[in-house]
Amino acid sequence: MNAHETPYAALTPEVVLDAVDATGFVSDGRLTALASYENRVYQVGIEDGAPLVVKFYRPGRWSDAAIAEEHAFALELAAAELPVVAPLELRGRTLFAHAGFRYALYPRRGGRAPELESAEHLAWMGRLLARLHGIGARARFSARGTIDTDTFVREAARAVLSSELLPTRLADIYRARTNAIAAAVDARFDAVGPAYLRLHGDCHVGNVLWTDAGPHFVDLDDARMGPAVQDLWMLAPSPRALDALLDGYAEFRDFDYRELALVEPLRLMRQVHWAGWVASRWHDPAFPRAFGYVGEPRWWEQHLNDLAEAMARLEEAEG
Question: Which range marks the domain in which residue 78 is found?
Fold first, then answer.
């Protein structure tokens, strides 16, 4: 395997600690790996100080310009007193390099998962997302891309079709089904014509931490341009929950209710994108360990069934 297939093979504990020390901090040797597949993230103990979190970016995924946009957005949100964990800025820099890896440092922030059954918690998050979107609408990303069918369906499907995971007998079905999905999603977006703004991009329950002071958002690694509803639907396990989110949202920002017609397309795009993501990362040893079931033909059979059911719901909603 080459370095592209196993990008973190050289990221040893010594390299992690040396990278932190290179920024001017002095690590105390304590190192804890935190849950992350796309990147590698560690909590590192600091002498005479609070522990830090260091995030090593996956080589080849984002350009330096795209990472700079992520960091600038996080800092802009933090400056507006939004509860977002932003990277540390040291001597005018937030992105560092060591031993061939790019990385950033963050303060450690704890918390628990939000209660998505609580109307109070949902309205609170809705208010914060409205404020986040208000700031997100002030400018545009130019290097981070857009939540669209080319990225989330067509590119993802190509990754699956070129991988070793999809059984050969299912390839034609998969190709036809994802082509149909791309066309249907494009048609729905064209019909709605949503406004695009800078988003968190991956605002699910795992990226929200709750404390006694309320929620804070973490991990802007998937920040992109897209419709506001993208940051809402993943936090809403039911229509009632979405209503509670929107009640809070409306206190700070108008919401274009036509975007609710994009929830099913966005859900469908996420299903295709996830499969493509795993397929494209399969040579990274962390992925077969975590998602071994994706290597089984029956998973792909079920995935195709799930896509067919999702398409049926989309077509039913159109009718």
Answer: 13-107
**Annotated catalytic residue 247:** no
Query: For the chain, what is the largest distance between any 2 Cα atoms, rounded to a whole number of angstroms?
Result: 63
Task: Say which of 64, 172, 219, 243 is annotated catalytic.
Answer: 219
pTM above 0.70, yes or no: yes
pLDDT in tens, 32-44: 999 899 999 999 9
Q: In the prediction, which pLDDT does 5 show?
A: 63
- DSSP states of 2-40 as a string? -TTTSTTTT--HHHHHHHHHHTT--EEEEEEEES-SSSE
202 catalytic? Reply is yes
Domain count, the chain: 2
178 and 308, same domain (yes or no):
yes
159 occurs within a structural domain = yes
Looking at residue 237, its pLDDT comes to 87
Domain termination site, one of 49, 75, 107: 107
Of 28, 64, 172, 202, which is the active-site residue?
202
Residue 112 lies in a domain: no
